[in-house]
Amino acid sequence: MNKDSNMTFIDLFAGCGGLSLGLVNAGFKGVFAIEKTPDAFSTFIYNLKNKDKKDSFNWPSWLPCRSMTTLELLENYKDKLKALEGTISLITGGPPCQGFSLAGLRNPEDPRNRLTEEYIELVSIIKPKFLLLENVKGFQMAFEKDKKAYSEHVIAKLEKLEGCNYKVFKKVLPASIFGVPQLRPRFIMIAIRQDIVNSLKIKNYKDDMFFSIVEKKALDYKKKHGLNKEITKLSDAIGDLEISGKELVECVDSKNFQQISYKTPSKMNSYLKLMRKDIRRNEAPNSLRLPKHRDSTLEKFKYIIKHAEKGKSLSKQLRERFKMKKQCFTVLSPDKMSTTITTLPDDTLHYSEPRVLTVRENARIQSFPDWFEFQGKYTTGGHRRREDCPRYTQVGNAVPPLMAEILGLVIKELSEGA
To answer: Which residues have a catalytic role annotated?
Structure first.
């Protein structure tokens, strides 16, 4: 493969764009992305195609630039997809994880699991050089029904795919090793088309040997950007977004809510410098809307902050005191990593202020830069939960861009060595 070859990618199950953003930052050029929810797709397109001439995608004229499913793509554009055979460097994506999540019911018959089959069909048609798949760690844990992890089904099919079988490397890695300020263990799979892997030194590597390359690249990246500590602590990520010492103003994108009047700190830590890159000094990021809590909730939160052990799930005694059914509620610690950011704003409590985190604080913990703007509603409820993808959900579902960028750099180097 020529070192000057254009590294192109297609993002399936793209969400709001965390994975694509990281790949673009690593030097890849997008072809198109598939995301079924209009809210998440709106955020994706706004930031990665339409914003400030940041056109990171050579979107084909034959494909509508709108939200759609992978099934729609296969049913309506198969001939066009066949024409892409052998021209795409990378297919990436993380099929929705609800069917595999340890926090869910882990049903092997969950229809969302079949999305992975559509992923494999698209791979068999386009035959990219590399694959990158990210999912929750439950993706490689066995279902009780058939005693076999879903990842094993996927890997077996990729290794025997007619006409373009792949060598697959897989491991569960924490996002924290990439400089992201949360543990967030994730199943990562990198697959290399067999004709390419045969020309690389890694053809006899096992999973741990291969992922030592990934971990070294992460360490080098962190050193380059001054993230030399073992972990990025939470206060480094969101300390400048605290209410304390700030003027509160009307929220710019949500009536009857407030937000802080943002001022760039005179001294910034290395992580904050990375998040504030490419945005003007004192320019406020979007999605700063502060939550509205009832007075009784504020008093409860104040008591919990004072008495809870920070960084750990709330004790049984405190949950019983306030009749809280939620098992995983955590008061965050400023000196530790965050717990895994989820799609629900009320899973965590700020370390010093009686409130849940803002969308922007969650985005910072996910390593989204401040110039990246989220679109759509902040939250939703009732029957709309199945259809809407509000901002909190977009952020919680995303692949951390820092993690994606480093994985992209690894794939890019492998490509140049082939």
So the answer is: 97
